[in-house]
Input
Amino acid sequence: MQTSLRRTVAYSLPWDDAPVDLRHLFAGEQPAGKHGFLTCRGGKMVFEDGTEARFWGTNFNSAANFPSHDYSEKVARRLAKFGVNLVRFHQLDGDWSTPNIFQFTKGNRLASTRQLDPESMERLDYLIHCLKREGIYCYLDMLTYRRFRTGDDVPAAERLGNAARPYSNFDPRLIELQKEFCTQIWTHVNPYTGLAYRDDPAIALTEIANENEMFGDMANLVEPYRSELEARYAAWLERRGLPAAPRPVAFEKTTENLLAFIVETMQDYYEQMHRHLTDLGVRIPIAGTNWVRGGAASLEAQRRLPFMDSHAYFYNWGWKPDVKEVKTDSMLGHVDPWYGSLLLMRTLDRPFFVSEWDDPWPNEWRAESVLNLAAVSALQGWSGTAIHTYRYDCREASDMIAMPITSDALAGVPYRGGVFDTFNDPAKFGLFYHAAILLRRGDVRESTGDMEVALPGLWAPRVGAEPGGVAPIDNGHCPALRGAAEVGRIGMRLPGAPALAPRQLALDERVVAEDAAEIRSDTGELHRNLAHRYATIDTPRTKAVYGFLGALGWIELRGLRLRCKTDFAVIALSSLSDAPLDRSDNILLTAVGRADNTDATYNDARSRQYSKGRGPILAEVVEVDIALDTAVAGLKISAISTAGMICGPVQETLANGTLSFTLGGDFPSIYYLIQKI
Output
């Protein structure tokens, strides 16, 4: 298809299948749970039989967690074909969702949230069964967006927001209700697996509360919770012989005493919940939360839990009901586009997981994010990631990105109306094949040059505060973290913790200069040029070049040379066998860049969207000359359609051990298989 500006090809990924099937690469991993329960050992997630766990995952949000049986079967199979091996069940308790875990349909007034809806649970049970069969593990959220009701016997229920933040961190009744929910779900027996959730090793991870901590949520506390917390703080000060705080306590104006009290209160909450879960017989790793508002103080509050989790977004949050602001920036020119909030919550003695990340549509450069995160996750030795999100519902007619959901919003949040949907986006989900391969198979080597940022304390003077005012140490206090994720393995060292890395860094000790022109990993496999905004991954079995390539001429990696005529693109090659690329007889090549809906419209700067457009999704045709060194004769190149059909050949020549060809000719696609006939 030809537009007025760019040549495109219709490429809406089907909801129920995948153009290419990776299951042969991971054929020994079915069913999920075959290696036993997941454990944490020495900073890694390891199954009981000693197999290290590496997860490339996705979130299912809201109603997507309660599909029909037919949908569950097809989507589980589809995910496995793409190489996905973990699904995080997110927003199970969101009251906006139909179904949700407390109510399968709307209409009858929901008096309380103290019972799991049997029809919703039956749907979730079957989904778990299907995922398990395909070798896909589950990350089961606990408290995310539950709206407590008057029938739950909680004070001021009508004034509590999602998850009753921050009160659910300290109020005894709210904690009791969380324990009750945990008891119900973890002792529930799945009729399709024959196992209680606590006894099923396919359910591999869980967290106590999503994005829920006391830091940043302490202004305008409602009664009786404010008085309850004031009394608790007064008793805490008295036990320590510290001066009483003036009443009413200004909880939003933090002092050292107040922050220490908040940390201890959160520690008590996490320890209560962790103890309750383990007493129930839950054996898998349990995280506290996954927010970074509290910085080093939040890290301290969770230091005794088995693993750490955090979230990262490259986004401007400008998607409003009437004005749709679009982030127009590329992450490749930033010293640190999104890793600071992750590294701040990582310690080297605990496994680390990224349960939410995204560079959402309609940023036209979003394709650059997928392989960047996958490669850095592998370099860092993180245990896995899950993109936010696959989708919010289970509709089958879906040939456009962000297909409108009724009022184009959920629970008053416009970006939940599809901005974060990725399941059919060729510029995001289209790159999952290579991301899954390089992380799960270990194509990108883990760094061995360990570094730790030594925290001198948990807080620092708060800018503009009254005398004695402090705030938790956060990214702004830690220049040492900026860019370091792409260099070598790095984590935080909490006060009083032993040194675990040979290189100890002060907060302001730079690993990467702020004006650096490039960043290179200590393994030599990853490189990013900030000045020209492009990056490379150069390993024996996976190679990729991504970013603004059109003006660069020939780019050389070991055994691969390419010259891209399209200004922005991601070009990735992965061996679909155990052999390195230069000896492989089966290679997947993906070439993708911009992708958007038909007739989507924007202002001239592309900073504001006027219309989402319609299906099908149009992917820009990437035109590139490629020279691949190979010892294999008889390789042929086929363009692959969305249905997995060969839509046409790509002409190639083999001379002196180099396979040369050009993509973007008569039969353009985003996927090409290079296979020996």
User: Anything to note?
Assistant: The mean pLDDT is 96.
